[in-house]
Amino acid sequence: MQHWLSLMASSFPFLLRGALVFTVPLTLLSFTFGLLLGFGIALVRLFGGRLSIAAARFYVWMLRGTPLLVQLFIIFYGLPSVGIVLDAFPAALIGFTLNVGAYTSEIIRAVIASVPKGQWEAAYSIGMSWGQAMRRTILPQAARVAVPPLSNTFISLVKDTSLAAAVTLPELFRAAQRIVATSYEPMILYVEAALIYLALSSVLSILQVRLEHRLGRSGGFLEAKS
């Protein structure tokens, strides 16, 4: 037991560095870019032309229908065969962004479509353009509904970043693998890594609950920001 506690204490700084330097930035950047991509795809699905809708559907179908690990392998190990070589972090960022974009697009499309058509008509009746109606009327209502599923996607992304270890990114799980290779103590180190993931997910879950409570109390997304 003393040996395990000593090993956990000595390995914790390396695991924490992997989390702070790679896991957290990868999560934040992937979710931000993926959310922007998902929003664009959702608008195409709802308001685009026939060809653009078909292309957006194909993208969502492909990304949601194939494993994320396979997508990462194609980007990092497959693209070099056609002359495109990426470092581990950009490859992981592209892979996670594309994957998150597919899933968030479906969430955003659903919540925008759930806003009653009467809201559009009311916005147009007072002289708003399409963009003004979207920004001032539709998105505030849709955002309130989208917070729980998008928060769940973000929390899942934190854990999914462990897959980046497969493309040699030295994030939290990869750091644990490296220490295991020299200490030969997989049980305690993988448990320690799992506890760090658990801590991150728990903090995010608490923040999610507080945000949902604030939105529910204020009655909308824009009021919660003000």
Helix content: over 70%
Order of helices and strands: HHHHHHHHH
- Average pLDDT level: 93
Q: Work out the helix count.
A: 9
SS-based structural class? mainly alpha
The top-level CATH class is Mainly Alpha
Q: How many DSSP E strands? A: 0
Walk me through what this model shows:
By secondary structure, the chain is mainly α. It is 84% helix and 0% strand. The chain has a single domain, classed as MetI-like fold, CATH 1.10.3720. It contains nine helices and no strands. Helix 1 (2-47) crosses helix 4 (88-114), helix 2 (50-65) packs across helix 4 (88-114) and helix 5 packs across helix 6 (130-160). The radius of gyration is 21 Å and the shape is flat. The termini are far apart. Residues 220-226 have low confidence and may be disordered.
Question: How are the SSEs ordered, and which strands pair?
Answer:
Layout: H1 2-47, H2 50-65, H3 68-78, H4 88-114, H5 117-125, H6 130-160, H7 172-183, H8 186-218, H9 221-225
Helix pairs in contact: 1-2, 1-4, 1-7, 1-8, 2-4, 3-4, 4-6, 5-6, 6-8, 7-8
